[in-house]
Write a structure and sequence with these properties.
With about 200 residues, the protein is an alpha+beta fold. It has helices spanning about 20-25, 45-60, 80-90, 150-155, 185-200, and strands spanning about 65-70, 95-100, 110-115, 115-120, 140-150, 165-170. The strands form 2 sheets. A 4-stranded mixed sheet has the order 1-5-2-6. A hairpin with a 2-residue loop joins strand 3 (about 110-115) and strand 4 (about 115-120). The protein is globular.
Length: about 200
């Protein structure tokens, strides 16, 4: 989808794995650097990974105004949605644009365990309200994120956030919420992805 975008100049894959790098290049992406192994462990957040890439670009005279951050575990986005997010960012004063979809489960119904009891996670007054009557809530789906390069590299970015403070959004279909974290997620995506691609044509 990134390669089909009309607004993305270069498609770069950050990885520590030589096999992934080879596959990425085979399909048309660039792998100009290998990510340090310490930035490829399960506990590593997005911030140091994106910052590492941006510093590499800066040190090699690649001018980067914006990064379109596409996670490999979030597959359900189109090149048109990518371009829509980029267009919303261009000429705006947003630090980033994030893809959102309707929340898969109402947060008002979520519970936490205290001792042997369930108590509401959020005291909202909506705990027993029918779904149809609940306020519409969106979740960040992680599928498309457009970020100003300078937002990540600002020295005053003490929150170590790649998104900054002024965040815009694009609404996406509910299917964009699907994120591969488990083997079950993988099987669901393996089944749905070909159907979704067919529906686009």
């Amino acid at each position: 989808q990134a390669l089909e975008s009309e607004l993305i100049d270069r498609v770069v894959v950050s990885t520590e794995d030589s096999e992934i790098a080879e596959i990425a290049e085979k399909y048309g992406a660039e792998v100009p650097f290998i990510r340090p192994k310490e930035l490829a462990e399960d506990h590593v957040s997005d911030f140091p990974v994106v910052k590492h890439a941006l510093l590499w670009f800066d040190n090699h005279d690649w001018k980067v105004d914006y990064i379109v951050f596409l996670r490999p575990c979030n597959l359900f986005h189109t090149s048109k949605e990518i371009d829509k997010a980029v267009e919303k960012m261009l000429g705006s004063d947003f630090d980033s644009i994030r893809g959102i979809s309707r929340a898969a489960f109402p947060p008002y119904w979520m519970q936490r365990i205290v001792g042997e009891r369930l108590v509401p996670f959020i005291e909202s007054g909506y705990e027993e309200t029918r779904r149809q009557e609940l306020p519409e809530i969106y979740q960040i789906n992680g599928s498309i994120e457009v970020i100003k390069g300078e937002t990540v590299l600002k020295k005053r970015n003490i929150k170590r956030s790649i998104y900054g403070e002024k965040i815009g959004f694009i609404k996406m279909d509910d299917i964009a919420n699907i994120d591969i974290n488990t083997e079950l997620d993988f099987k669901i995506v393996e089944f749905l992805f070909p159907c979704w691609q067919r529906d686009l044509t």
